[in-house]
């Protein structure tokens, strides 16, 4: 989830409940991915090596807490590049689906922006808008376009919703 650009490990902070949420999903056999626009790389605000280092440190944090993210997909391009991967285009989701044999209509996309919700709908994933960060700003628009399948306050709530929904099916 983007809260402006994070350009150093010092600025990075897990959202409350995020690590626990990832672990809870892992424990139930779910793979978790991060799909992130990082135009700051294309704009030379952030070096790719620094971004990769932040991601490695995130992975180590997770490992220490018995949680894991299968892969972090990054679009490093500037918006003007009109690449296929920058959200709201679904390139990164399609790539994840290919590489990890995912059925996207059985996947959940948890995000905090209108862009994330459009991306989810492009591939018919179940979309959850978290109201933290940009979520509050974009909620009105997301609602009027009916782009989210579910709304919640925190990542933690999103994870609980997913687990409840899945357990109701089984
Ligand atoms: Zn891209």
From TrEMBL:
Top-rank taxon, per record: Bacteria
NCBIfam families found in the cross-reference section: HAD-SF-IIIA (TIGR01662), Histidinol-ppas (TIGR01656)
Record EC number: 3.1.3.-
InterPro entries cross-referenced by the UniProt entry: HAD-like_sf, HAD-SF_hydro_IIIA, HAD_sf, Heptose_bisP_phosphatase, Histidinol-phos
Name of this protein: D,D-heptose 1,7-bisphosphate phosphatase
Main location as per UniProt: cytoplasm
Organism: Paenibacillus hexagrammi
Keywords on record: Carbohydrate metabolism, Cytoplasm, Hydrolase, Metal-binding
Transmembrane segments: none
A GO term, aspect molecular function: hydrolase activity
Enzyme class: hydrolase
Matches recorded under PANTHER family: D-GLYCERO-BETA-D-MANNO-HEPTOSE-1,7-BISPHOSPHATE 7-PHOSPHATASE
Family in the record: Belongs to the gmhB family.
Localization per record: Cytoplasm
């Amino acid at each position: 989830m983007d809260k402006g650009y994070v350009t150093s490990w010092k600025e990075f902070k897990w959202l409350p409940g995020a690590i626990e949420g990832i672990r809870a999903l892992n424990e139930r056999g779910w793979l978790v991915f991060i799909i992130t626009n990082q135009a700051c790389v294309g704009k030379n605000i952030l070096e790719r090596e620094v971004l990769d280092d932040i991601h490695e440190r995130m992975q180590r944090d997770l490992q220490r807490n018995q949680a894991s993210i299968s892969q972090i997909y990054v679009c490093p391009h500037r918006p003007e590049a009109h690449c296929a991967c920058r959200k709201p285009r679904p390139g990164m989701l399609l790539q994840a689906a290919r590489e990890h044999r995912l059925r996207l209509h059985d996947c959940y996309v948890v995000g905090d922006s209108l862009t994330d919700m459009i991306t989810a709908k492009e591939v018919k994933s179940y979309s959850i808008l978290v109201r933290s960060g940009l979520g509050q700003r974009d909620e009105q628009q997301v609602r009027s376009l009916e782009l989210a399948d579910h709304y919640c306050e925190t990542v933690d709530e999103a994870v609980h919703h997913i687990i409840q929904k899945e357990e109701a099916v089984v």
